[in-house]
Amino acid sequence: MGLLAVLGVTLGSLAQAQNQFVLQAPSPIAALNLQRTVTADVDGDGDLDVLGLGLLPFAYSALYLLRNDGNGQFTNVTTAQMPGFLLTIHDITPFDCDGDGDVDLFLSGGTAGSSLLRNDGLGTFTVAATVANASSRSTVAGDLDGDGDLDLALAPDLLLGGLYQLLINGGGGSFSQGPSFGNSVLASVAVFDLDGDGDLDVFYPSSRQLLRNDGGLVFTNVAATQLLVPNTVGLVRFVRGDLDGDGDGDFVFTGSGLPDFVVLHQGNTLTVGAALPAQLLTRTAALADVDRDGDLDAVRGHANSSLTLSLNDGTGGFTDAPQRLPPFPIYSDTLHAADLDRDGDVDLLSCFQSTTTFLLQNRHVHIEAGAALRGQNWNVELWSEPGYASADGLGVLAVGLARLPAPLPLPPFGHLWLDPNGALLVADSIPMSAGRRVFAFAIPSAPQLVGVQLNAQGLVAAASGGVRLTALGIATIQ
Question: How many angstroms separate the CA atoms of 89 and 83, rounded?
Fold first, then answer.
């Protein structure tokens, strides 16, 4: 602990406000050039791992698994933990197929069929079954027959030659063909309790089928009376979440060439809401509480290679906030929002045509540890609401040589990574004008320090969003 005793610390901050999101340095995620990503805790360690699809030669798809160390750092474990495939994969659906408490995978395929992968509980997958005649562009899981296990609703398109259909789980992950409902050129599906009777109904937007579950796998199309959305609103791709704070799931529909619209679930009907701020053709969207004010905001990727962030007013009305995103083009065909570093804010994964993958970290609560060089200052930055804070925040930074064997949950503050024994503790305000405070530590030039690992973790009290622990910042002295 002698090193910590001699570290001198100075403070600094930037006067200019910064963007809320920052592009993470190159990582295994960016190197894979993925087409699509989903997240799930596949190894049961409490953090979100990344499953991705990438394009291989001859139009086959590669499935990748990137294990999260819990701190937003990823390791490609595909070779060790995933089987190889010789079929096209269009979608990944994480769900517990056999009721054993871990995350299994349904891989929606093309005309060659789809595959079910079973998890051993530690994140290693094997092929449990190949499901013939089950092509799909989009798949969702839900208990459609009320027997306590998860069934699947499939939405292929005409290019795949399949039908809108249900796959029924017979228990233990054995699936059989259920009802089918025709097909459409464009494919999407949602399952939710439309009428509050305790069972799951099925919605195929592009064919305007709103299917009430009558029990016993009997469904009635009630779109004529309960889908109160005019034909001028394009029902193509969507993202879903509670947009108006009434506790049920609403929709944002995008990608039709028409304006992007909110569709609200009100009572037992779907009703058109407000249009989102106008943009060029929207390729993809994600809903997340970006500013941690309790409602879901919308992030959209557009045909002009731009991302937009539209903030929710709590009722499903949206206003663009361009100043919060990086000031350079972000190409995006698919977007995914998730807290990847366990600091309590939502990060973004953006993929574009299997050529560019961006990981954008949210600096609502954030730490960045710079390079640690002998004889120079080691800069550690704490961030709080950059560019939009309403008051100065409080930043407390701890620096130590040791970390805990596993992160310690400290609800509601987050996870403690740093071993507090002997840690150096400093604190100062995070100015509203910059959203950032820099703590600079003077590192002695002694050669014996080469290879020593420095660990830093912050506690940020933001003007909104409460008190949160940051992720862990790590630097090795060079």
Answer: 13
At residue 168, what are phi and psi to the nearest 5 degrees?
A: -100, 125
Please say whether the dihedral angle defined by the alpha carbons of residues 228, 233, 238 and 241, taken in this order, is positive or negative: negative
> Can you tell me the distance from the alpha carbon of 190 to that of 205, in angstroms, rounded to the nearest whole number?
8
Closest CA to 19 of 338, 385, 347, 320: 385
Could you say which DSSP state residue 25 is in? P
Question: Residue 61's closest CA among 93, 102, 91?
Answer: 91
**Ramachandran quadrant class, 243 (left: phi over 0; alpha: psi -120 to 50; beta: rest):** alpha
Q: Give the three-state DSSP class for 148.
A: coil
Tokens of 367: 């730490």
* Interatomic CA distance for residues 101 and 334, integer angstroms: 28
Q: Which pair of structure tokens corresponds to residue 110?
A: 């093309």
Report whether 285 contacts 254 (CB < 8 A).
Answer: yes
pLDDT digits (tens), the chain, 478 positions? 578 877 888 877 665 667 899 888 667 787 787 888 999 999 999 999 999 988 776 556 789 999 999 888 899 999 999 997 656 788 899 999 999 999 999 998 876 778 899 999 999 999 998 887 777 888 999 999 999 999 999 988 666 666 889 999 998 888 999 999 987 777 789 999 999 999 999 999 988 999 999 999 999 999 999 999 998 788 888 999 999 999 999 999 997 777 899 999 999 999 999 999 988 789 899 999 998 889 999 999 988 778 899 999 999 999 999 889 888 888 888 899 999 999 999 999 998 877 778 899 999 999 999 999 999 999 999 999 998 888 899 999 999 999 999 899 999 999 999 999 989 999 999 998 889 999 999 999 999 999 999 999 999 997 666 899 999 999 999 9
Work out the burial of residue 162: count CB atoms within 10 Å of its CB; fewer than 13 is exposed, 13-18 middle, 19 or more buried: buried
SS3 content of the chain, % helix, strand, coil (to 5): 5, 45, 45
Three-state SS at 376: coil
Alpha-carbon distance 261 to 264, whole Å?
Answer: 10
Structure tokens at 164: 């809108």
